[in-house]
Prior knowledge:
Blueprint: E1 3-5, E2 14-16, H1 20-33, H2 38-53, H3 56-74, H4 78-81, H5 88-93, H6 109-126, H7 135-150, H8 162-171, H9 174-192, E3 212-217, E4 221-226, E5 232-233, E6 238-241, H10 259-265, E7 270-275, H11 287-303, E8 309-314, H12 316-327, E9 336-342, H13 360-373, E10 375-376, H14 378-388, H15 390-403, H16 412-418, E11 423-424, H17 425-437, H18 440-443, E12 447-448, E13 451-452, E14 462-467, H19 475-478, H20 481-484, E15 489-494, E16 512-518, H21 527-533, E17 535-538, H22 541-551, E18 557-558, H23 572-575
Helix pairs in contact: 1-13, 2-7, 3-6, 6-7, 11-12, 11-17, 13-17
Amino acid sequence: MMHDKIPGADANAVRPARNDRDREFHAAIGRYTGGLSPAALGTATLDWWMHLLGSPNKQTELYNLAWDQAMETLKLPAACLAGKEDCPEMAAMQKDRRFAAPGWRKFPFNVMARGFLKQEAWWNEATSKVHGTDPRHERIVNFAIRQIVDTCSPSNYFWTNPAVLEKTREERGQNIMRGFQNYFEDLKDQTTGEKELDPDYKVGEVLGITPGEVVLRNDLIELIRYTPSTAEVRPEPVLIVPAWIMKYYILDLEQRNSMVKYLVDQGFEVYMISWKNPGKEDAEKGMDDYVRNGSLAALDFVSQGTRKVHAAGYCLGGTLLSATAAHVAHRAFQPVASMTLMAAQVDFTEAGELSLFISESQVSFLEDIMKTQGYLDAEQMAGAFTMLRSNDLFWSRIITQYMMGQKSGKNALMAWNADSTRMPARMHTEYLRGLFLENQLARGQWRVLGHTVNLTDLDMPIFAVGTETDHVAPWRSVYKINLLTDTDVTFALTSGGHNAGIVSEPGHPRRHYRLLDKPQGAPHLSADSWLNNAEMRDGSWWEAWSAWLGARSGAPVPAPSAPGRRPRRASPAARRSWKPRI
Length: 582
């Protein structure tokens, strides 16, 4: 092995030279593991297994549970074997969406489904409450076992899925032929690395068509200023900072569900950042670059050093915005009038199951992958998100598209999701280490442009939004902004997930949300106490947010032109023709 001399040390002192072959080897493994570190999983599994071997009482409990389950199966009532509707065992099974189809009530499919659910319950018990096991390792093993057990579900296979068999009989196998076609189309996309975007949802024609123009451009962002649709606007504009891992038009989808259009129609002047999709040349861009040329550059441009701005951040954009707002808090002129955080975390101690993938071993593994290509691409990021919801994102897709021969229904959100992005290597490393591993922002240790920032310096009113079924930013984690600041915080908890809960326009059926304000200086509430006290409301949280912004803005004034530009009027058709450079 080659070695380097250590400067200033004894002449015989050496250290191993950096071995790029190790890095390349790890990157090659990452292509087959979805970017996940086998060492991290192996360490957790060994910890769990050794403690289970040393727990005879736990082993006895598992043995007894297996025996009881076997006896229950042997004593299954005749009504259940016959697939009758009044069988209580079958009624309980129907609550699982995988086995909700009528065919699962018939023998032998009902017995297979019931047996699988018993097996699933046994493994959940086996990987829970093992005395002495590191709690984090136990959660990792429990999660991994769920993924393995999911592969054994009878709903995932042709010959054991009654709904698929019935479909095949009805169509005389045509569904299988369509399924093969769908499979080969997906295989082509994976092989070529090029995924065709849905032609029915083109950006600039169907999506992202709210009239506007680019008013600021640098090597990292384009800042879009949307054309006011009302004669008068609020004097304090709204600046939206989306996450850099998502295309900006998530908040400007179709006109019916565009948050941007809704705000513009409510009389707000709206700006939004469109982040560059980085390439290998951007590998050394870090978090400071994203502040300097991203959130801070946009904030300074919109405020012009004289006017207040209502800043809103979505997902990681909200995390970046929080650090930026704390950074400018000590300026002579504080430009942030209010801050809105949409599914955005500032404390990562309870970041949900996604945090199971973040450890020193995992981050080092990702660093090796990113070093070889300069960025982390969407497919490598997608592996972790898919496993969080394997039943919904993986197995249901195989059943629907490859066995049933059905293409997933088209919608704007799915088209946006297919328009993937990347992350620069240095920025992603700093984000994972500084925020996920060390939680520096919540601890008051995060540095922005050379200065340490502290969330306690945030004195502007805050509107924070969590979503009930968020697997990326769990609402209880988002809620922690209440505990880290001593300002007025209004928290909303809305139905839906990380994306659909935020893109929840007025008129959307079956939407609801909870809302409660904690005035500055009022006692802090735990998440459970907040949930018990928050008022439940039907409809979209957008309406409550618009009213909240309006109450904190001045009286309407004549709609201005973009800063630094002479007033001009352009037709909506002309405004729609602009195409983002990045």
